[in-house]
Amino acid sequence: MPSGADMSDQSFLESWSLNFNELEFVEAFNLASRIWVAFQLRFFQTHGRFPSRAQDLSSEGLEYLAQQLDVKIPVDQEQFDYRHVNARRHRVAILKHLGVRRATDRDRLALRSWIFENCRRSSAPTVEEQVASAYAWGLSNSIYISSDKIMERLVRSARPDFLEDLLASIARALPANTRRQLDESLSEPRGYGGFHLMKNGVGAATLANVLGACERLTFIAGLELSSEHLAGIDPSWIAMLCRRVERENASEMRRHSDDRRIGLYALYLMDRQKRLTDDLIDLFLEITHRLQTRSRRRVITRIARDIERVYGKDQLLCSMAEAAIEYPEGRVIDVIYPVASVAKLKAVIEEHRASGTLDKRIQTVMRGSYANHYRRMMPKLLSVLRFRSNNSVWRPILDALERIAEWRKEGRRTVPVGSIPAGWKEFVVDDKGRLNVISYEICILGQLRSSIRAREIWVEGADRYRNPDHDLPADFDECRASYYADLGLPQDAQAFVTNIRSQLEKELRLLNETLPKNDKVRLRATGDNRICITPFERQPEPAGLINLKNEIGRTWPMTSLLDVLKETALDTRFLDCFESSASREVLTEDVRNRRLLLTLYGVGTNAGLNRIATGTEGVSIDELAHVYRRYVNATALRAACAKVANATLAIRDPDIWGSVGMACAADSTKFGAWDRNLMTEWHARYGGRGVMIYWHVERRATCIYSQLKRCSSSEVAAMIEGVLRHCTDMEIQRQYVDSHGQSAVGFAFAHLFGFELAPRLKAIASQKLMLASADQRASLTNLTPILAGVVDWDEIARQYDEMVKYAAAMQHGTADPESILRRFSKGDVMHPT
How confident is the model at residue 395 (pLDDT cuts 50, 70, 90)? Predict the structure, then answer.
């Protein structure tokens, strides 16, 4: 139960305030018992159960209740015994006062049915969260479940029943031919459409990988799996069942009953179809980008080599002219060759033949690379992807893709109007008006890549590249007030704009007044870089910190990481976050926890499970691999990390560490990765191929969130995702980032989400300030060199509702920030909002 410090003021008052009727009821007890009667009364009305756990005790709640009752706060709060006979008598009186009755068998059956239906409507919460929801249902129906064990048993029995019912409904809806194909896939797991092949990743962008992934997607599409039984089912349940299939081999799958086996496999392939489609789109984007960048690199390298070969061409021409004038009757071999060698003259001829604009030479190289290699994979890849668009402006590209497919069969050479950019017409159409099909394909694929990245063209059956309209909350119009309330924003656009405008005016006036007193900042009147900032001097390391490091080194000189991990698990119980993906669990808690620790240690340190099993007695590689398959997944790891972070924040002594604070810093780190990893990309700034890990770290160096990102992905999106999804008790009100973690769109969404974005701008010298109104310019004399235009407040008011809709989509998880921000971050696409 959250303490008063972790609750908002409003929720704290709602939880612990006594009304007149309750005060009258509590005052009927003796003076010593009143505080505890009031505590149990308010706790029950908030949670639907009576306090029975050590963490249920709230010192802040007791203090507030004591103020209302005008009694003293209990000195020894820990000595209160919930099982004492007096406490039980108090609970009986409370139930009678509230008109709540103990649950009968019929009530338990009704509660179990409600849990079953609630599983269908809600996400896949933990057992503890469902127990809390079930207690709330009992309170709303004036029913009291007297034991946590009874409630947990009801929840644990309803969850598998819901899953079995879901799988059975999926299996029974499949035609006999589809069931037969699924059984054959499990019987021949390494054959065409085999179970093990279905689980393979796409891999790097090679010809074999692309064709293999296309075959797998074609096989799944041929099964004609219907997802109508998944309508209304939260994706977290589907992800949990897919993890279960992902961790099993073909023989383990064949052991399930018919409906369970077919239902699990069909559900997995439905999800796999989306992921394969996304991966193939990623491959398409990478292949198209690679074709452009490698062609450009080859041309530039060749130009540099040509320049080196014919260096001094003007001097060479002058020497040849002088020799020809001096010996007009001489032979070339006697007059010219002594001045310019044959090799030098050949280099000049080759350079002249290859002369032309840089773009034309790049396009020529691209055509050769595409015709000789990439064209073998691209037709098959495009044939399995179904492109769509909600914007008629992009319809010519879709028409062009259909024409390209027809031309491969018919050999037509016509130019569709409106599909060729002006810069490509000379490359695509020759002097006789004939179309070069290969050049035309390259042109269209380049435009297709840009429109897919901007979400203007989407792919049917994809997840990350799905219809962008599905990213937004479907019930936004009906629940507009609720979404605005969740964001803490007014529904009146003019009120929102007026508030921002007044804030901007106030901050500009304050900056104008304080800037002359700041000796670290001065403004230039001319030039591009008008802001001058004096760097701060580096602070010396505190002596106390140096002594603390030395003392830790002397006390724990050779502490094993495994020991640290074990002690953390004992103190925080983060191993409880790892639940088996199987339907039942046979390992004892001690055995499971020991193997989990070894598995996490082996994977986390990159030592590997084989090495850990070899160096540890009483455990085998198969046992660790089984634990890894069944227990370790991204959701469980994130929950465990949040639990450790919360424990770290809670255990700190404020006298030493200070308050937890509400500020956080975020930045990324590049890690090298193999090319086979689909997320591996070349990093434009750091160089080399790899991936990015984006960290969110609070002010005292505790990491509260981390995420794996592509090198080309938006750091602004990663910043927003960390603020929204960090899952710790910390409330972030200020987020520090570097220059790559901010943008104008990022500032806008940060304000809508209610936190301050504080970037460390690398180009701070050239920044400008927007004005709230044109009349304000004359009063800001100290800021004149860096003042820009006036904010278009009318446009903000017009687009306010749309901005809130996108913010609500990110907050409620209907779309990830990366997908949303793509629609605003491409310079060649003008988004209305």
Answer: confident
Question: Collapsing DSSP states into helix, strand and coil, what is residue 676?
Answer: coil
What is the structure's pLDDT at 558? 80
| Cα gap 807→487, rounded to integer Å | 8
Q: What is the pLDDT of residue 4?
A: 40
The CA distance from 389 to 248, in Å, is 38
Question: CB of 266 within 8 A of CB of 171?
Answer: yes
The phi, psi pair for 760, rounded to 5°, reads -95, 90
Highest mean pLDDT among 320-329, 487-496, 709-718: 487-496
**pLDDT tens string 245-279:** 988 889 989 999 999 999 999 999 999 999 999 99
Separation of alpha carbons 14 and 807, rounded Å: 28
Task: Give residue 387's pLDDT band: very low, low, confident or very high (50, 70, 90).
Answer: very high
Residue 590 contacts residue 575 (beta carbons within 8 Å): no
pLDDT band at 5 (very low <50, low <70, confident <90, very high): very low
Coil, strand or helix: which one is 769? strand
Confidence grade of residue 433 (pLDDT, cut at 50, 70, 90): low
R_g of the chain, CA atoms, integer Å: 34
Residue 715 to residue 3: CA distance in whole angstroms: 34
**Long-range contacts of the stretch 421-430 (C-beta < 8 A, 24+):** 421/447, 423/359, 424/363, 426/360, 427/360, 427/363, 427/364, 427/367
Whether 832 shows a pLDDT value over 90: the answer reads no
> What is the average pLDDT across 327-350?
78
Which contacts of 525-530 are long-range, i.e. CB under 8 A and separated by 24 or more positions? 525/785, 526/785, 528/766, 529/765, 529/766, 530/765, 530/766, 530/785, 530/786
Scored b (16 or more CB within 10 A) or e, 198-221 reads bbeebbbbeeebbeebbebbebbb
Whole-angstrom CA distances from 560 to 553, 568, 637, 702 are 13, 13, 21, 20
Helix extents (H) in 632-743: 634-651, 654-657, 715-725
pTM value? 0.79
Tokens standing for 391?
């914007």
Contact indicator for 195, 265 with CB cutoff of 8 Å: yes
Please name which of 374, 170, 347, 353 lies closest in space to residue 292, comparing C-alpha atoms. 374
The answer to whether the beta carbons of residues 698 and 660 sit under 8 Å apart is: yes
Long-range contacts of 18-23 (CB under 8 A, 24+ apart): 18/42, 18/65, 18/68, 18/69, 23/68, 23/69
Q: Which of 447-461, 673-687, 781-795 has the lowest mean pLDDT?
A: 673-687
Tracing tokens 């299939």 back to the chain, one arrives at: 245
Q: What is the DSSP letter of 678?
A: T
Contact 660, 649 (CB under 8 A): yes
CB atoms closer than 10 angstroms to residue 158 = 21
- Give the tokens for residue 479: 């629940």
- Per-residue pLDDT, 620: 93
Amino acid at 753: F
